[in-house]
Amino acid sequence: MTTPSALSRAFPPVHVEAGLVTLGSPAVRLRDALDAVFTGWADRAGAERVLCPPLASAADLADFDYFVNFPHLALAAAPVDTSDPDTLPGRGDDASLSPDRLGSTALLLPSAACYNLYSALRGARLDRTVKATTIAQCFRREKEYQGLRRLHGFTMREIVAIGGPEDVQAHLERHAALIGEFADHLGLDLATEVATDPFFDPDGSRAVMQRLFPVKQEFVTADGVAIASVNHHRNFFGERADLRVEGETAHTACVAFGVERWLHALQTRFAGDWDAACDAVRAYPGARA
Amino acid sequence: MTTPSALSRAFPPVHVEAGLVTLGSPAVRLRDALDAVFTGWADRAGAERVLCPPLASAADLADFDYFVNFPHLALAAAPVDTSDPDTLPGRGDDASLSPDRLGSTALLLPSAACYNLYSALRGARLDRTVKATTIAQCFRREKEYQGLRRLHGFTMREIVAIGGPEDVQAHLERHAALIGEFADHLGLDLATEVATDPFFDPDGSRAVMQRLFPVKQEFVTADGVAIASVNHHRNFFGERADLRVEGETAHTACVAFGVERWLHALQTRFAGDWDAACDAVRAYPGARA
Fold first, then answer.
1. Is residue B219 part of a domain?
2. pLDDT, tens digit, for every residue of A256-272?
3. What is the pLDDT of residue B63?
4. Which residue in A92, A259, A212, A17 sits closest to B59, CA to CA?
């Protein structure tokens, strides 16, 4: 039997091209170690583990004002029209598919992991605050992509609370503290920055409210990369997805981790020594066995 | 602190709608236990752990005759044209996006996990057989979807060998034996069926060869669901992706697991008792600690 270390590696730890990343073994191991920390936090918060569909309903997202707030991100999953096989790309073709070769669709690729959680609960009448954690491939269309820092396709782990305002606020505060504690353990220098998020009413009143009462806090590396955020949506998703807790419209909040951005931060912090980074993550007292 | 079991569950173990599945905690735990078995096999085979981009290049797939062999599966990731905001769906709209609202794209959603592995190695000159394991969200357009058995979006774990013909053949035989042993342990009644696969030349000669020398073997449950397969591609991807091992065109083979289909098989086998299924998987002697 051959052990992985006995093989010359065919795949480098990280290879990024056009905003798409291939991770080799050392980076995959670090990713798994990081995710064990995040899911360990989720377990301790009593979060259910949920895996949502890899696509999101465009109608559900429209109900969340998605096309008003994030039109530039919208990426559709569209069938290729194969009615005329002669027009389909063959070997050596540039293979760009123009819209006239595509069919209609009602499905989008998600830009964040938690939308599908709120959609899955649509109409729920909960008797207490519910917490859930999920991980998803997410997609953002950007003018420019930058290594692991800004990818077209990336992975987002979230820990979400749906319930009463106090529970939801406590959820954010607890996880903000855990992120700070974990960063200290890793020797990661993270600044917290208040950000504005475009969950606003078209008339701008919610945007104004957000500037008065910050609802998004980001955890930012010394080189300016937001690797985690805590987000308070107040009653926005509760109203739009008709979520009620003990008779009241639910508040929601999410703690979000950009997994590849954590890899970037730790690659920098440990000067490319993936094993050292992995050891440091696994030595975190909160890491699961 | 609340433990997950103390919460009333907001998410059922499995909810399928229109070919898209949401998994709740018991099913996620079983999925993780199954994947630990598959990755344990991969580790013992000396496979590198690789995570590929969630999208595939249409040009790379065209080089693999994808649009000749699987045109009906092709699903593109197309940007939504946001130049006229008034045409974008809002709250309560049906939100179907017609092709005239989409832009051009050169990216597809993959229908199998291993294409991106061969693409990542394009042009490689290897000095020995390389093995790799990967997991990916995959997508298939079907006329009809059926519970966990036939999904629009699903998860595929693969263990791939790229190298000399004997190594590649031994890889398939070893994993076919492991699948049989694991099924026996679980009390799963799996039949092996030889299948044809559309990796053929347009002139049909390879299709003929496949009927003479079977290259795909499926592991099929009593209710007719193929939950795993071993696939010998001979030199197909080696030629198309210019992969050479010790100076010769590489042969490739993959062992593929349809993760949600395994959940279906175990849900049936254990009559919906997810914990019992999970215990059985974890008790498999080959499962990782």
1. yes
2. 999 999 999 999 999 99
3. 94
4. A92
Q: B185 CA to chain A: closest CA distance, Å?
A: 23
CA distance A249 to A125: 9
% of chain A beyond a pLDDT of 90: 79
Mean pLDDT, chain A, whole residue set: 91
User: Would A82 be classed as within a structural domain?
Assistant: no
Q: Which residues of B touch A10 (CB under 8 A)?
A: 48, 121, 124, 126, 130, 132, 162
Q: What is the pLDDT of residue A4?
A: 41
pTM of full prediction above 0.90: yes
The answer to whether residue A166 is domain-embedded is yes
Two tokens at A14? Answer: 């990280």
| Lowest-confidence pick of A26-40, A190-204, B21-35, B83-97 | A190-204
Are B51 and A28 contacting, i.e. CB atoms less than 8 angstroms apart?
A: yes
A204 Cα to chain B: minimum distance (Å): 16
Contact B133, B159 (CB under 8 A): yes
Measured between beta carbons, the chain B residues lying within 8 angstroms of A85 are 67-68, 71
The per-residue pLDDT for B8 is 57
Instruction: Residue B228: give its domain's CATH number.
Output: 3.30.930.10
Q: pLDDT tens across B15-51, in order? A: 999 999 999 999 999 999 999 999 999 999 999 999 9
Structural domain contains residue B95:
no
pLDDT (mean) for A202-226? 73
Identify the domain containing residue A149 by its residue range: 12-54+110-282
CB contact under 8 A, B96 and A82: no
Query: Could you tell me if the ipTM is greater than 0.90?
Result: yes
Partner-chain contact B132 A51, CB within 8 Å? no
Among B31, B77, B127, whose Cβ lies nearest the Cβ of A109? B77
Distance from CA of A104 to the nearest CA of B (A): 4
- Report phi then psi at B11, rounded to 5: -115, 120
By the 10 Å C-beta count (0-12 exposed, 13-18 middle, 19+ buried), A87 is classed as: middle
Residue of chain B whose alpha carbon sits nearest to that of A74:
B80
E strands in B39-152: 48-49, 56-57, 75-79, 107-108, 125-126, 130-139
**Chain B partners of A130 at a C-beta cutoff of 8 Å?**
7, 10
Instruction: Report whether pLDDT(B204) > 60.
Output: no
Domain count, chain B: 1
Closest-CA distance, A271 to chain B, in angstroms, reads 21
